[in-house]
Amino acid sequence: MAIVAILLMCLGFLGCFVNKIPGPLFAFIGLLIAKLVADLPISWGIIALCAVLVIASMVVNSKYVPQLAAKLYPYGKGGKWGTFVGSLIGLLIALKASAVVGIIFMLALPYGLAWLFEFKGNKDAKEAGKRAASAFTVYLVSTVIKLAVVYICFNATISNMGDNIVG
Hints:
Layout: H1 2-17, H2 23-36, H3 44-72, H4 77-96, H5 99-122, H6 125-166
Helix pairs in contact: 1-2, 1-6, 2-3, 2-6, 3-6, 4-5, 4-6, 5-6
């Protein structure tokens, strides 16, 4: 069952970059499986902390981050879809490329495709650039928040797996 927990954590990591997958939630479910089914010595305090962080990240990412972007510049469905498609393609390229090239593509493609999709809808390059920048800001801030939460859940699980195997 520890393998299922690790697979869920990997899916959680993937969800940090692909906004349609609730990454922190999958990482937390993996943490719970590691505690309850694999019987890893993870404290309930860590689980409670992770639960609070997962809920907080979901609220912040669904409510406050889009408000931040709306204050910058409103964006449309083109920006949302552009960052989504760009993050998927960027992630696939990152898996095959070197670390530097992967990071460049994971940053450039969401913005580039957000611009392209917004431009296609508005036919104004300057307007599309502003909208794409706002959509990319939401993507970037959301990704960083989710990465932090998934890292905490993942670290709590892995560090206890090592203790359990060695000890």
